Predict the 3D structure of the following.
Amino acid sequence: FFVECSHFSQWRIDTTGDLIARTAVRLNEAGLSDEEQKPILLAAKSLFTDHTVTWPLIMSQYYLGHIPSISGLITVANIPSIVKRRKLLTHISADWHATSVRLAGRIFGSIQRTMAARAAASFCL
């Protein structure tokens, strides 16, 4: 349901757009060039899909609250200060985690409401 169900594809698309925009703002504030931002934004774009590069096991696990490791995408060459680099990594990771949990909760809630409505309808028959 969480990755492939077409019923929820628009929610995933909308959430991905919001996440990319939020991530881009953080990267711009950190002073990363457009070229340096590309791999991070690609990871953000594929967070809610089964992507071979973003997810090492080729299976998205955002619905479990997991996010892919991005520490290799923001290097010393990008941000020499270890404090600033860790701060950026922490902020992006927190954004991705919270967004993932919200989307998974929204999908799960929708499924629960649908199942409850079906159960109530069959009970009344």
Observations:
- Residues 6-124 form one domain.
- The mean pLDDT is 90.
- The radius of gyration is 17 Å.
